[in-house]
Hints:
Shape: globular
Keywords: Signal
Strand content: over 45%
Radius of gyration: 17 Å
Number of helices: 3
Mean pLDDT: 88
Distance between the termini: 33 Å
Signal peptide: 1-23
Largest sheet: 13 strands, antiparallel
Number of strands: 13
Organism: Paragemmobacter kunshanensis
Structural class: mainly beta
Protein name: DUF3298 domain-containing protein
Amino acid sequence: MRRAALPRLAACIVMGSALPAMAGSFAAPEGCTTFLTVQSKGCRVSNHYTCSADAAGDQWRTDFDQEGPYFTSRIDSEAQWVESFELDPPVRQTLDPNPQDPASFSGLLATGNDSFIFGLSDDTGERTRVRGSDRLTGRQVVIDGITLQETEFNFTETDLSGNVLRRSRGNEYIHPDWRLFFSGPSQWDGGDGTYLPLDGSPIQFIFPGEPGFASTQPLFDCDAVMSSLPFTPKS
């Protein structure tokens, strides 16, 4: 699944902003530790964290826009989308057992290509199937002092009858050691056959002890004032 792109795009196009504005510092749930904050294009800030009760390699992310938190997701060590929570209205979605072709971050790193076919179910009773692939382009990019590898991706999500619900194609970025995907420039189709250009690329990577760590206020592309704030990249 598009661990980086799909949640934000679905939220922008389908559900909009979630909760009342609440700028401040992100507090991970009890037993969890925040390790990375990412300020991205498209008026999004994401806080990444791990929890001691989870399986080794599991990672969580909570996304905020100007109105507050709107999406939380958990991936495993292979960057499979294990579960996610949309916050308005509250909906939990989970990965179905025994995927036909599980997503594999290890396989992508080893061969440069990875395909995936799996099912998703949510607590409203909706069941869907996702099919797609990731490919390393061989290009490296440096964003805020962090070296990332570029990927090319595509995915299509259908209902169980094969009707297209949503699909996307474009580029993302991965960090091999962090085992994370980050959004890039892409195109999104909400099921009507029309692709819209979108870009949720990261702009700042912020670590514990640095200014802006655990922020819940996005900085970029939110409005003319916010997007004009100065940005000094790491050396």
